[in-house]
């Protein structure tokens, strides 16, 4: 039996995602409001040098994408990297990774839904926040309950809106920098060295900014979750992983390069809200009408896209946990259209809870949840690289299992990327915006790890009960057959 066949028979999921949909899914998962509105945080730490730091973060994301493509092309199974960790690092690692990542996604979805509601109030400021939160929650839940091909198509167009916005921004920006626009002369490249120089806060500022520029690529790992629903995972997943990271590299590096050129970094760090976004400023300068309204529509789409993708990944992760016996068996069931509806609905309930917390207690409880999500997201990357090392060792012993794509330079590349990820995780403890990552993340992972003992005991009791029931059935049949 091939891996493709095994993946489908074990999961019951439908293989109908095409290459273009998987690529856009990966791009959409990592390209969000962080570029449109949030790049100012990295600039406040590193100034114009942030462009180089986005390149450094992309190198780690490329290593992650290749490592995932290599492993999932060999094992296109439901559960993605969580199932791979279970296979190569042991059940505890697979359990912790999947539950932590599911919690990370649910919290992230809740934040994106609330953000989308806030963006909608840009046009209707008197609208109660709970109204768009409920509407958007129902919308992305229905999209995820539809056939996976429908989900893929909706997400393709969601992501395309973001991609087109960035491409237009870069195109207009390059023109404005070198040729000017209308009555405005060419901006030139003076912004790269003025206002304190290329790296105004020195090496310390650049190191701290690495946290933001690396975390910007979070979501790249989502491509691995599509392997069990890809038409041709051996071809599509590696192609999508490579293409997505290269596109993100160009978008983030060129996008921030344009921002630094057209708007002094000292002004960019004061940006807050859509109307003050560098995107809006540039579109206004080149004469695009209603630039703020267009940009608000883009960031609204970006938030919904991220929420839509994360709900998809969260539901597949929950489905995988159920198949492995680490979550209720009912959550592993699929519909007639091969959609894991119970897992989708369970994840939707979680995002509703996160949305409520983020709306009711944004200054206390929700930052703690976001800190835990941030920490577990980076731990997920570490475990992916650790899994890749174990995968390579196993592959060296069995040359017949060589995958179709391989991470160049591994295992040295894997170890280097793993060390870099660990450095970024440590640095989060020194960034005020991420200060809760360690405080909330470590206890959260500890609780999940401790729950593994209880879950495995329950699973062992269930397995014993089922074995006893199976052995009792023939005996009962033999007794009833006696004259």
Radius of gyration, taken over Cα atoms and rounded to an integer in Å: 24 Å
- Helicity, as a percent range: over 70%
Sheet with the most strands, sense and barrel status: none
What is the succession of H and E elements?
Answer: HHHHHHHHHHHHHHHHHH
The count of β-strands is: 0
Strand content: under 5%
Shape: globular
The low-confidence runs, each spanning 5 or more residues with pLDDT under 50, are: 1-10
What is the number of helices?
18
Oligomer: single chain
- The separation of the N and C termini measures 45 Å
Mean pLDDT: 81
- State the secondary-structure class: mainly alpha
Q: Explain this structure to me?
A:
With 483 residues, the protein is mainly alpha-helical. The chain is 72% helix and 0% strand. The model is unreliable at 1-10 (pLDDT under 50).
Q: Could you give the topology of this structure?
A:
Blueprint: H1 3-11, H2 19-30, H3 33-36, H4 39-46, H5 50-74, H6 80-88, H7 91-120, H8 130-145, H9 148-179, H10 202-215, H11 233-262, H12 265-268, H13 278-285, H14 291-323, H15 341-360, H16 365-397, H17 412-427, H18 436-480
Helix pairs in contact: 2-9, 2-11, 2-14, 4-10, 5-10, 5-11, 5-16, 5-17, 6-7, 6-16, 7-8, 7-14, 7-15, 7-16, 7-18, 8-14, 8-15, 9-11, 9-14, 10-17, 13-14, 14-15, 15-16, 16-17, 16-18
